[in-house]
Amino acid sequence: MEGKRTIMRRSTLAAVAAIGSASLLLSACSKADDNGEDGNKSAGANAATKGVVNASTQKGGTVTYEYSDVPDSFDPGNTYYAYMYNLSRLYARPLMTFKPGPGEEGNELVPDLAASAGVPSDGGKTWTYKLRSGLKYQDGTPITSKDVKYAVERSNFARDVLSLGPNYFQQFLEGGDKYKGPYKDKSAEGLKSIETPDDTTVVFKLNRAFQEFDYLVATPQTAPVPQAKDKGIDYVKSIVSSGSYQFESYEEGKQAVLVRNKNWDAKTDPLRKQYPDKIVVKLKVNAETIDQDVQAGTAIDLGGTGVQAATQAKVVNDASLKANTDNTYGGRLVYMAINTQVAPFDKVECRKAVQYAIDKVSVQTAEGGPIRGDIATTVLPPDIPGYQKADVYATAGNKGDAAKAKEQLKACGKSSISTNISARSDRPQEIDAATAIIASLKNVGINASLKQFPSGKYFTDYAGVPAFDKKQNIGLHMMQWGADWPGGYGFLQQILHGDAIGASGNTNLSYLDDKKINEMLEKAIATEDENQRNSMYAEIDKLAMDQAAIVPLTYFKVLLYRPANFTNLVSTAAFSGQYDYLNIGTTKK
C-alpha cells in the first residue's frame, strides 16, 4: 500500500533506526498502572518498536484518532491506505490478519475470520478456508462463507463503483477477466471460481499458482459483507460490523464514532480485546494541531506518517521529549513516478535525464533529514526480501549530475521540457520534496510546475487517472509506497505490473507495462522456493530501474511521538511502522 497504499506493509530486516544514543533504548514494556495516574512515565526512545508500551487490560474511556485529510474510504472493500487497513480491523475481520507485535513480530500472519491458515492444493492454484464457528454481525445474524465471497466480488469486480482497493483477486481468480461484478450480475451463483460448498467453507480457484495467497486474504477485501445490506458506494454510510466495534455515527469528511459491538464474542476472536468504550476518528484536523494533541496525550495520529518538521526539531533536541518517540523504517519507498504515457517521458532518455538531474540530498533535507529516510537508489527498500544494493544512476554525493542529465536530454531530442508534477496538498513534507525536485530539474532545462491534490482523491480523481494526467500534462508524480505484504511481489506488483493499470484508482503511476517485468512477476509468485523468488524480485527491480520509470528518493523512516494516556502501544512492521490500532486503550475515563 502506500503512504497511500501503503497496505500496505513491511518486511524482514526492519531493524530499529535509533534516533539518539544507545542509552535511550530502554526497556520495551511499561505497565500503565506503574506510570502514575495518566500512564505518562516514558518507556524510552524506540520502546514501542521492541515491545508493548503501557501494557494494560484496563477497560473504558475514549480513544481519539485525528487525521489531517479524509481517508479514501472507511469501506473495507474500497480502501488502500495502510492506516485504514490497520483501523478497519476494528470493525471488519478479514480471513487472515497480522498478529499484534513489535517490529518484525507484527509481520506474522494469523487466522482471523478463518479458523486456520489456507490449505493449498493443485500446486497453489486452489486455496480452501474454514470459518470459525459462532461468528456474528453486529445485528446478531450469522456470518457465512457466502458473505466472504460477496465481499471479494464487490471489492474487485465492480471497479466502476468501488475502485480504490487493489485488484489482485480480479487478476488471479479463474474467470476474473470476464465476470462483471455483483451489481451487474444478478445471478445467484456469482463468480464461479469462489465456491461456498457450505456456510463455513470458502474455496478460491486461481488461474495460476499463487504461493503467498494467505497474505492476499489478509486484506480487508475478505471482511464479510451481507449482500442484502450492501448499498454500493453508499455502503460506507451504514457498514455492518464483523469486528469488536461498530459505527455509532459517520459524518462524511468530519468524523466517525465507533462503539462496542455487543454481538462480538471474544470466544470467536483471540486477537481483539475491546478495551475502550468508544473510538472517535476526527478528520480534516490541521497537521500541527494533531502534533500538539499527540504531545498532550489526547489523540493518536491516524495517518501514522510521523510528526511535522517543526515538531521534529523540537522533540529531537529535547531529551525528555525524544524519549517518547519511536523511529523506525516504515517499509516504504518515497519516490517520484515518471509517467511513461505522457510525452516526452514516453522516451526512456527523457526519463533518464530526470534521474540524473535530481539532487537527492536536497530532497532528503526537505523531508526532514536522515531521521525521516535514507537516500534510496532501488525500488525495493532494504527491509523487503529481494533487495539488492545498486545505484544505476549514481551521482557524486547523490547530489545530481547536470552534465549527464543534459546529455540524456540531447539523446531524447530535447534541450528543454515543460511539465507538471503532482503532490498531495495535505502532506507538507511531500510538497517540500517536490519543490526541491523542481529546483533540481530547472538547473538542466526541465521546467516543472507543482500541482497539488488532496490525499483522499489523489488516486481516484487526479494522479491515478491517465486521461487526467495527459490532459493536464502531468509527467511526474510524487508517491510513497509500502508493501501490500512482506514480500517482493507484495511490494512490486501494484506499482510495476501492467495489469494494475486502470481508468482510475491507479497506483502504477509510472503507467509502466513492460512485458518482461510482467512475466517475471508472474513467474516469481508461482515459484515455491523462497530464495528463488527473492532473486527474481531483485532482477525485476533492476529492470524497472533500467526503464527509468521510478526515481527512488528515500527509504522512508517514520518518527512517531508516543502519546501518554494510551495503553498497548506497539509499532508494527505490518502497518508501515504505525502503532497497531487493534487493542489500544486509554487510562483516561
TrEMBL record:
The keyword Transmembrane helix does not apply. PROSITE patterns: PROKAR_LIPOPROTEIN. GO terms for molecular function: peptide transmembrane transporter activity. Residues 108-500 form the Solute-binding protein family domain. GO terms for cellular component: ATP-binding cassette (ABC) transporter complex; periplasmic space. Residues 1-32 form the signal peptide. It comes from the Bacteria. One of its GO terms (biological process) is peptide transport. InterPro entries: Peptide/Ni-bd (IPR030678), SBP_5 (IPR039424), SBP_5_dom (IPR000914). Keywords: Signal. CDD domains: PBP2_clavulanate_OppA2. PANTHER family: ABC TRANSPORTER SUBSTRATE-BINDING PROTEIN, PERIPLASMIC BINDING COMPONENT OF ABC TRANSPORTER. This is ABC transporter substrate-binding protein.
